[in-house]
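Quick one, tokens below. Sequence please?
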């Protein structure tokens, strides 16, 4: 993904367009994506699994551009879970190397598009060089006002909740002071709204420990496409599916 391949405009048309009707349907403010199927995509082509992960990173700009054109303001990508450390060591090393390369080659281009980058998850288990590059990316883009791109890397929903509880205990908060708003401030996603729509590619239908607190009332969309093949047409289908749904948030909507 080179700067030349990135769109010439920021990844969303304007703040006024966010949440408005696009092609006749309402657009989500925050889309979270479980980018699944890279390894299977590679296997179907007789390629090593890491080649599927590389193809997945090359698909990022296409999906971000498509979401931005529709007015989506926040995007979160599930890139590496806390459970992924149990994969073969050579695959883990390869994934970390791919992330390192994407940060080094793409952050300035994303910054030029006014994208703010957030890291969701732990940093302490990464190599020191990768930690430094992630912190530089966060610092470089922290004042940007365009699309917010959350990257969940070494992220797990249960781990996030446990870390939040530990932090609350360390801060000595009295039980009566703790509500959903206070608890949310201790989560990795404290700078993001809850996701309106969660997309999972490659046909699987589970959250896999992703945003399990934040997704209480998220809409879910499952695409049969593996992540490297998830294109503008698939983005349109996912957003249209969301726009055709009625969100009740547990309440009843009066009829007539």
């Amino acid at each position: 993904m080179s700067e030349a391949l990135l769109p010439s405009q920021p990844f969303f048309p304007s703040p006024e367009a966010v949440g408005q009707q696009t092609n006749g349907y309402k657009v989500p403010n925050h889309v979270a994506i479980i980018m699944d199927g890279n390894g299977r995509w590679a296997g179907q082509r007789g390629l090593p699994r890491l080649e599927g992960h590389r193809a997945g990173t090359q698909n990022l700009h296409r999906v971000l551009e498509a979401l931005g054109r529709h007015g989506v303001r926040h995007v979160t990508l599930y890139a590496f879970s806390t459970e992924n450390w149990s994969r073969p060591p050579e695959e883990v090393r390869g994934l970390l190397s791919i992330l390192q390369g994407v940060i080094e080659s793409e952050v300035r281009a994303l910054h030029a598009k006014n994208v703010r980058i957030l890291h969701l998850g732990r940093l302490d288990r990464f190599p020191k060089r990768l930690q430094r590059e992630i912190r530089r990316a966060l610092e470089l883009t922290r004042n940007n006002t365009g699309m917010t791109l959350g990257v969940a890397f070494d992220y797990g929903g249960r781990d996030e909740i446990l870390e939040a509880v530990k932090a609350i205990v360390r801060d000595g908060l009295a039980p009566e002071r703790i509500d959903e708003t206070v608890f949310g401030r201790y989560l990795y996603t404290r700078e993001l709204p809850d996701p309106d729509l969660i997309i999972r590619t490659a046909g699987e239908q589970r959250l896999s420990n992703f945003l399990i607190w934040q997704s209480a009332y998220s809409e879910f969309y499952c695409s049969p496409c593996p992540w490297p093949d998830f294109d503008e047409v698939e983005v349109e289908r996912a957003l249209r599916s969301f726009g055709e749904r009625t969100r009740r948030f547990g309440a009843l909507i009066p009829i007539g």
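DSSP finds eight helices and eight strands in the chain. Residues 90 and 209 are 23 Å apart (CA to CA).
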